[in-house]
Amino acid sequence: MDEVVEFCVSEEQEGLRLDVYLAELVEDASRSYIKKLVKDKRVLINGEPCTKPAYAMVCDDAVMVHVPPPPPITPEPEDIPLEILFEDEEMLMVNKPSGLVVHPAPGHYTGTLVNAVLHHCPELERSGLDPVRPGIVHRLDRFTSGVMVVAKTQRAFASLAKQASDHSFDRRYLCLVRGEFPENMGRISAGIGRSLADRSRMAVTGVRAKEARTNFEVLERFGIASLMRLRLETGRTHQIRVHMRFAGRPVLGDPVYGVTEYKGWMVAQELRDALHALQGQALHAERLGVCHPVSGEMIVRTTPVPPDFQTVLDGLRAYAAAR
């Protein structure tokens, strides 16, 4: 049976191509997969099938997508490069690039982090772990880069999954947001649940919300934007992106909760081009610390922001210096 998902186009999303709009909202779906759904008349706009992937969204359009059930998924090993930060017999820590989906999902049955890990660690296929998501105890959004840990044994999986569930991972992120916080440091404590206006999104809400807490520190201010360091106390879906929007400081490059249009920004063309070249949200998991499942030692790994993030950061620093 098809899964039916419904969306309502916001004012910020008006003018987006239909395939671009849906590729951002249908979790982990590729644009080519979305185009196939459109051409197969599985996408309805205001009750009528739309077969044009380039259709320009209009504010308040009601969009309904019929997503067919996925075929049986048994991920195969694929020779996809991995940047390994730590590895032993129990676990693996990697730097996930932006754009890489963590595990198979509609439109992404191959080319995922799981496929890469299976190639690197052939023993995972015989480990007794979940065959679809072997070793995956947490995830990063497709366009969020940074440090992830993967279990290689059932013993490691049990320990790491419990740490993830107990929110005892030491997780720190860097992100670029619009505008500036008046405080240098602070804490956002606001429950997150499904948006009542758009069930595809998360939002700060008082209805069936889960407790969510994000600590922030302002590292640099640029007038039009800021570089933030964030530490999670909880791990809700899209937590940082939702909390930053709630605080009035949405993440740059985030097509769902943040900023992708820079009209009115009086900046050099080089910086404007860099902003438009962001590969999704400017959000990077710079640090992850976990308790080793056997030794009990705290294993911490850090990684620098990816090139597209760094290019925007350099441009913002130049902009601030010239003010």
Structural write-up:
- With 323 residues, the chain is an alpha+beta fold.
- It has helices at residues 18-25, 31-39, 113-120, 154-165, 239-246, 269-276, 307-322; strands at 3-8, 43-45, 48-49, 62-67, 84-87, 91-96, 145-151, 170-178, 185-189, 192-194, 202-204, 213-221, 225-232, 283-291, 298-302.
- The protein is built from seven helices and 15 strands.
- The strands form three sheets. Strands 5, 6, 7, 8, 9, 12, 13, 14 and 15 form a nine-stranded mixed β-sheet that branches.
- The chain is globular.
Secondary-structure blueprint:
Elements: E1 3-8, H1 18-25, H2 31-39, E2 43-45, E3 48-49, E4 62-67, E5 84-87, E6 91-96, H3 113-120, E7 145-151, H4 154-165, E8 170-178, E9 185-189, E10 192-194, E11 202-204, E12 213-221, E13 225-232, H5 239-246, H6 269-276, E14 283-291, E15 298-302, H7 307-322
Parallel strand pairs: 7-14
Antiparallel strand pairs: 1-4, 2-3, 2-4, 5-6, 6-7, 8-13, 8-14, 9-12, 10-11, 12-13, 14-15
Helix pairs in contact: 1-2, 6-7
Key descriptive features of the protein:
323 residues, alpha+beta, 4-stranded antiparallel β-sheet, 7 helices, 15 strands, 26% strand, globular
Low-confidence stretches: none
Order of helices and strands: EHHEEEEEHEHEEEEEEHHEEH
Helical content, roughly?
10-25%
What's the Cα radius of gyration? 20 Å
Specify the overall morphology: globular
